[in-house]
Amino acid sequence: MITLSQVTKWYQKFQVLKDCSTEVEKGEVVVVCGPSGSGKSTLIKCVNGLEPFQGGTITVEGISVGDPKTDLPKLRARIGMVFQHFELFPHLTVIRNLALAQIKVLGRGTEESQQKAMKLLERVGLREHAHKFPGQLSGGQQQRVAIARALAMDPIAMLFDEPTSALDPEMINEVLDVMVALAREGMTMMVVTHEMGFARKVAHRVVFMDKGEIVEDAPTTDFFAKPRSERAQLFLSKILQH
Amino acid sequence: MFSNFDFDVIIRSLPYLFYDGMTFTLALTAFATAGGIVFGTLLAMMRLSGVPPLAVAATGYVNVMRAVPLLLVIFWFYFLVPYIGQWVTGAPRPIQVGPFVSSFVTFTLFEAAYFAEIMRAGIQSIPRGQVGAAQALGMTYLQTMGYIVLPQAFRNMLPVLLTQTIILFQDTSLVYVLSITDFMGAASKVAQRDGRLVEMYLFAALVYFLISFFASHLVRRLQRRIAIIR
């Protein structure tokens, strides 16, 4: 469904992505991990065109993201994205956060979009917070609202950019639970995360990145059992020590 | 000291001062604020658009307007607008617009430069991630601006925008150079006619002070009420 082929990106003289190629099938969950600064967040932002890239191609259901003729807003409306810092709209209530793009982008009616919003809030366990402002919620609650907001658009795939990195430890699980449930339902997901427990539990494949390159791209069990590259071995030994 | 003051002149001229004068002053302030914010926001968006011709044009406009004294701009527009009108419509003669229209146009265009800078700061105060989130939901540039960035920028900047409006309210007194009867003009005319300069100018100062003072007070209270919960 999502195909990346030799994606290359430069920040002036500095190359952040080097010939990155991988694929996410329909219904597949792919975890992207690697040390900080390895380009994994940049890579996932290229998938819906939030970050431009100079070389290679990315296609989502056959539509080329990098093609200047592509209607990017239309494509993005079909791909959900969840950010590290939630990025809820602070001037709108929770339910307005969920309803706004449904109404303005998808052209749904107010009634329909509110119902959809309430259903999704119920699902992430935040129904009673519908009329609060994001600033009145905890980080974990905000991130769950952000997931619900993305789901309200009925996306064909979901991108997660370090969804738990900005959370206090006790709030990480409530967000991961929602993501695990989503994965089990068969949602196509590309997840940048350091949560190796999550990867083991639901990921079909793990993509390991270092210094802008995809070093390893393997089925989850293989990746954890016998990582081929030295860099992945080193990364895993560091991250799994505790 | 006040023994030979004639405060009665103020009472006698109250209807003229407020009904004729203050009405115009407030109308001009309101119109120039509304128009200035709309045009100023457009200028700010042009300046931040990253499209060189738009950014250069907006930057040039803002810098020129802010570098020229308001009094001069009022004169310029009064004499230039008829010729611009002629040029635009292709009329055989300069189009006389009169001091009223001229003052409304001038103040709107002049204040737009100041409001543009305020809105630019406001737009820049919104985290980049907000734009990313709006775009990720499929919003276009205009939707992102209209529903996400500008409402937040406007709210963040409302106190500054209103403070600028209070300054504008005081600056409208400069229309006296076009012989318009605003509040200051009315006070001035009565003062000249009755030879009561000190009384009238004292009273005018008091009125400007009271209105500006209470408006500032309201702005502070409003600021506390509309703050976005973060």
Number of helices of chain A: 9
Q: What is the tally of beta strands of chain A? A: 10
Q: Which structural class matches the secondary elements of chain B?
A: mainly alpha
Find the CATH topology of chain B: MetI-like fold
Number of domains of chain B: 1
User: What is the element string of chain B, with H for helices and E for strands?
Assistant: HHHHHHHH
What level of helicity do the residues of chain B show? over 70%
Q: What order do the helices and strands of chain A follow?
A: EEEHEEHEHHHEHEHEEHH
Average pLDDT level of chain B: 91
Kindly, what is the distance between the CA atoms of the first and last residues of chain B, rounded to a whole number of angstroms?
56 Å
Describe this structure in words.
- The complex is a heterodimer of chains A (242) and B (230).
- Chain A has a six-stranded mixed beta sheet, sandwiched between helices. Chain A has a four-stranded antiparallel beta sheet with strand order 2-1-4-5, covered by helices on one side.
- The radius of gyration of chain A is 18 Å and the shape is globular.
- The model of chain A has no long low-confidence stretch (mean pLDDT 94).
- Chain A is an alpha/beta fold and 242 residues long.
- Chain A has helices spanning 40-47, 72-76, 94-104, 110-123, 139-151, 169-184, 196-202, 220-225, 230-239; strands at residues 2-11, 14-24, 29-33, 55-60, 63-64, 79-82, 157-161, 189-192, 205-210, 213-219.
- In chain A, helix 3 (94-104) runs parallel beside helix 5 (139-151) and helix 4 crosses helix 5 (139-151).
- In chain A, strand 1 (2-11) and strand 2 form a beta hairpin.
- With 230 residues, chain B is mainly α.
- Chain B has one domain (8-229): MetI-like fold (Orthogonal Bundle), CATH 1.10.3720.
- Helices cover 80% and strands 0% of the residues of chain B.
- Chain B has helices spanning 8-47, 52-67, 70-89, 98-124, 128-136, 141-171, 183-194, 197-226.
- The longest helix of chain B is centred in the N-terminal third of the chain and has 40 residues, at 8-47.
- In chain B, 33% of the residues are buried.
- The model of chain B has no long low-confidence stretch (mean pLDDT 91).
- The chains are: A alpha/beta (242), B mainly alpha (230).
